[in-house]
Design goal:
Layout lengths: L76 H14 L3 H22 L11 H9 L13 E3 L2 E3 L14 E4 L4 E4 H6 L19 H9 L2 H17 L6 H5 L1 H27 L7 H9 L9 H25 L3 E9 L5 E10 L5 E11 L4 H14 L7 E6 L3 H4 L5 H8 L4 E4 L1 H12 L3 H18 L2 H9 L18 H10 L1 H14 L3 H14 L2 H24 L6 H20 L1 H17 L24 H26 L20 H10 L6 H14 L8 H7 L5 H12 L5 H5 L10
Helix pairs in contact: 1-2, 11-13, 14-23, 15-19, 16-18, 17-20, 18-19, 20-21, 20-22, 20-23, 21-23, 26-27
């Protein structure tokens, strides 16, 4: 790696320099220097070089090294050469000056940083230093040329062939001394004589190739190479060290410690996953008996550190494919935990190259403020911390709260202003709940919910009354209360109530006749009269039936593998089925027969409320029979409202969903208007001039083909249809619901402040 070329101008420069101020490169590479560490070249011509006169020529400054023993050089020969060469380049034309100087500095820095370890004396070589000497070498470019040196009557320079790692893998060039060393022999050679390539660098460029070939065949070199390979194998864990080989007890102790640490990590993962406490691990028990108290790895600090490391590894496993994806979406929801602190759940949605869709929870973040501005900054900061590019976000999945979905100050408005390619999607599961909520505002349905909720609360609130209910039938299911936010789950409550209505009536009758508390008996009597009514039973049967039809849609909208096309299609299919039931009178007749049969079993008379011409507070459509009354005043209005709400809130598609017309099964219906809408919706992601040709080839390819899923279309267009591939990828990356974020709320109680 090379230091960056450009930098930010600064007013001053370091007053002095010495190599100990340079930070050595990491193992196997050279650290990239930060741009602010580089001083720009400025005009000026020094008359005499000195460390104080380096500043005008722009010598960079680096951070200090923590361990100066790695850097024994105290002279400034290397930088002097670099600056002098840079000064000679300064006099060339202004167009070439900057490029030449920076190129010289990059090459010099790389050469010095990769060869400096070779000159370190053996007394200062640690295992880390030896490993760096063996593994880090100066690899010049093809155009690189070393400095000229007079040998005999000719000027010569180091031949690049001597640095060919295929032929001379252990030869390393030192820019400081302008000579070549053998790294293996400089560390492991057993000869103490002043032999070239070993104790002294070789700089006879006229004969170096012949001497290098002879050196490679020498016994000293072959022995040093054997030792170097053995040393690298030990460092890499392929072979045992001398201490491990000689001490069997030491090796066994290392193995026990590693096994104990692995066991501790496994127990932490197991307990965290299943919320358990493990006391039956034999390896850990033996470790706690034998290990000293300062190396048992069971303190809360070590445990928290292990948990933090595990969490970081898991998060990195999740985020790595997200960073590699073309686009991704962000799903956010907030809630209050048991400690009354506002927690924000962040979920990322991305698609891999094979078309598979992933919704992954990333983190919880505490916030004291839930305004749109605060939440937007929080989301952007977390994306930056995780290394995710905000400009690759194509979709936002929020609920309908104003601070999230507001068009002026909401999070989605601020995101769209910053990244115009983002599109907000209102959680489709919330939309279904809102549709059912609005539908259930019909008077008779609202009364049904009120009565059922009060009865369930009345029975479950007392152990005595609950015992009376369960004693009516041994396998009686416990009554379920309504969920305040999940109207799609109300079908379960109504289903249990409908199936156990005989037990409920018997329970209420028993309490009314035998309870000693007058108020409790009066409540039970009132509830008994409410249930023992044909209108209540008919409403219960009809509402439960149609809510049961929406349950599969509710489950599909919460699936991680669902996409906008599937969600829209499933909702449209449900609407078409409801319209068919609305126009077909047999559906109501079936439900009405079921209600009359239930009423007969409960000994309830079949009748409808009386009609009054001026009645305004309840349904009062003229009718002659009970069936006609409930069809006109209950069944049809309820069904009409449900159809309208589903069409408005879920089936209404955005411009991006229009890309479903590009699926092979829909190509026959693809129109010019559809193509125009698709171009407008996906213009930031495609080349408009190439899309028409790709669509024509796509239509020809699938003129006789069957339907394909969206995931299969992504695979089919991966190489030959780049614009269609981008369209399908963006479409499948759009969020459907915030269910993944809400599912994470169940783990909030595990967080420790």
């Amino acid at each position: 790696m090379e230091p960056p070329v450009h930098g930010t101008p600064s007013a001053g420069a370091p007053s002095a320099w010495s190599p100990q101020h340079m930070e050595p490169p990491a193992y196997g590479t050279c650290r990239r220097m930060e741009p602010q560490c580089i001083e720009p070249i400025v005009h000026g011509t020094p008359t005499l070089w000195s460390p104080q006169r380096v500043a005008p020529l722009g010598v960079w400054s680096l951070q200090s090294l923590e361990d100066p023993s790695f850097w024994p050089f105290r002279d400034i020969l290397f930088i002097e050469r670099t600056v002098y060469t840079a000064y000679r380049a300064y006099v060339v034309s202004s167009e070439q000056r900057i490029q030449r100087v920076q190129r010289i500095k990059r090459t010099a820095y790389r050469a010095y940083s990769r060869s400096v370890y070779v000159c370190v004396s053996r007394a200062q070589q640690s295992e880390t230093t030896k490993r760096q000497v063996l593994c880090v070498h100066f690899v010049p470019r093809k155009s690189w040329k070393g400095p000229l040196k007079v040998i005999g009557n000719k000027q010569r320079r180091v031949p690049n062939k001597i640095l060919d790692k295929a032929e001379f893998p252990y030869m390393s060039y030192s820019v400081k001394d302008d000579c070549v060393f053998c790294t293996a022999c400089s560390i492991f050679a057993k000869s103490s004589a002043a032999v070239p390539f070993i104790r002294e660098g070789h700089s006879d460029w006229s004969n170096i190739m012949r001497h290098a070939e002879r050196h490679n065949k020498s016994p000293i070199h072959l022995s040093a190479v054997s030792d170097a390979l053995a040393f690298k194998h030990i460092c890499d864990g392929k072979n045992l060290s001398i201490k491990q080989s000689l001490s069997k007890a030491y090796a066994e102790q290392v193995a026990r410690n590693r096994a104990a640490l692995v066991s501790i990590v496994k127990i932490i993962c197991l307990c965290g996953k299943h919320r358990l406490r493990s006391e039956h691990d034999t390896v850990l028990r033996e470790h706690l008996k034998l290990a000293s108290k300062n190396s048992q790895y069971i303190s809360h600090r070590i445990q928290n550190e292990i948990i933090s490391i595990i969490g970081s590894q898991i998060r990195e496993t999740i985020l790595t494919p997200c960073r590699e994806a073309k686009y991704f979406s962000v799903i956010v929801d907030e809630t209050t935990d048991i400690s009354v602190k506002e927690q924000v759940a962040l979920v990322v949605l991305y698609v891999t190259s094979d078309g598979s869709r992933h919704e992954e929870f990333v983190t919880f973040e505490e916030t004291a403020d839930t305004t749109g501005e605060t939440l937007y900054k929080l989301i952007c900061n977390k994306l930056e911390d995780f290394g995710l590019d905000k400009n690759k976000v194509v979709g936002l999945g929020f609920d309908g709260a104003s601070n999230m979905s507001g068009k002026i100050k909401g999070v989605q408005a601020r995101f769209v202003n910053d990244v115009p390619t983002v599109e907000y999607v209102h959680c489709r599961a919330h939309c279904l709940n809102l549709a059912i909520t609005q539908t259930c505002k019909e008077t008779s349905v609202r009364n049904l919910y009120s009565v059922v909720g009060e009865i369930v609360k009345f029975i479950n609130a007392s152990a005595k009354r609950l015992h009376i209910y369960t004693s009516q039938n041994e396998d009686a299911d416990r009554l379920k209360k309504f969920c305040a936010t999940r109207w799609g789950c109300h079908e379960e409550t109504l289903g249990v109530f409908l199936n156990k209505i005989e037990n409920i009536i018997d329970t209420l009758h028993f309490i009314r006749e035998n309870d000693t508390d007058p108020s409790t008996a009066a409540k039970a009597g009132a509830f008994f009269m409410n249930i023992h009514c044909f209108q209540f039973l008919t409403t219960l049967v009809i509402v439960h039936h149609y809510l049961n039809l929406t349950k599969p849609l509710s489950m599909a909208l919460q699936s991680k593998t669902n996409n906008l096309i599937k969600a829209t299609q499933e909702c449209k299919e449900l609407v078409e089925m409801l319209k068919s039931k609305r126009s077909d009178g047999s559906s109501f007749e079936h439900l009405y027969r079921k209600a009359t049969q239930l009423a007969a079993d409960l000994q309830v008379d079949e009748k409808h409320p009386r009609s009054i011409c001026r009645q305004k507070n309840r349904e009062n459509d003229p009718s002659t029979t009970s069936a006609e009354f409930f069809e006109r005043n209950l069944h049809n209005p309820f069904l009409d409202h449900l159809i309208v709400q589903l069409n408005e809130r879920i089936c209404g598609s955005t411009n991006r969903v229009r890309a479903e017309m590009l699926l092979p099964q829909n190509l026959a219906s693809l129109s010019e208007e559809d193509i125009a809408v698709i171009k407008e919706a996906y213009s930031p992601f495609i080349r408009l001039l190439d899309l028409d040709a790709e669509v024509e080839r796509w239509k020809w390819r699938h003129k006789d083909g069957g339907p394909l899923k969206l995931e299969e279309c992504i695979q089919s267009t991966r190489y030959l249809y780049p614009n269609l591939n981008n369209i399908f990828t963006v479409l499948i990356t759009m969020p459907v619901s915030t269910a993944s974020a809400e599912r994470s709320f169940s783990t909030l109680w595990l967080l420790i402040d």
